Amino acid sequence: MMRRTHMKRTGFKSHPHVHASYQEMSREERRAASAARTMAQCTPRASTVVACAPVAAPVMKEAPAQSEAYRRLVAALPCAHCGVQGLSQHAHLNLGKGMAMKTDDRTGFPLCCTRPGEEGCHVLFDQYRLVPGGADAHHELGKTYGAQTRAQIRNSGQWPKRLPVWAD
């Protein structure tokens, strides 16, 4: 049979180096004394002030146009890359996007979605794998497809009435 031994617990003992007057202080007084000791140990440093050029005035960006009607018109077109019909999505140009930043819907163009057994052009475009040449090649391709899509919708007479026409 195993014997259990218990460790004897001792109470908190006061440290011999702590003065009695310190123990008699209130909590706030002890904190103030501790802060004073810390500040006394700090080494003052010279701060450097750098003269800066005047800040340029902010440039207000035009809010990107958002149009559900235009996005639906674009999605109704055949894929701009492979030509498949009935599977298109409105693809945004991957340029100027960022967190909480949208691109103008008028820069969009139709690309097909992913379907069973085949990766769609939209996914390939977003991952810069649709054409060789990386991001730059995809940006140029997107600009070309966007211009073609805008011309096609304008020429068909279906441009949404409340959407300002994009000047190509």
Task: Summarize the SSE layout with pairings.
Layout lengths: L19 H4 L3 H15 L26 H8 L12 E4 L17 E4 L8 H6 L7 H22 L13
Antiparallel strand pairs: 1-2
Tell me, rounded to a whole number, the average pLDDT: 84
| Beta strand % | under 5%
| Helix and strand pattern | HHHEEHH
Q: What is the alpha-carbon Rg in Å?
A: 34 Å
How far is the N terminus from the C terminus? 92 Å
Walk me through this protein's architecture.
- The protein has helices at residues 20-23, 27-41, 68-75, 121-126, 134-155, and strands at residues 88-91, 109-112.
- It has 168 residues and is mainly α.
- The chain has a domain at 68-155.
- The chain has a two-stranded antiparallel ribbon with strand order 1-2.
- The N and C termini lie far apart (92 Å).
Question: Main attributes?
Answer:
single chain; 168 residues; mainly alpha; two-stranded antiparallel sheet; elongated
Structure summary:
The protein has 168 residues and is mainly alpha-helical.
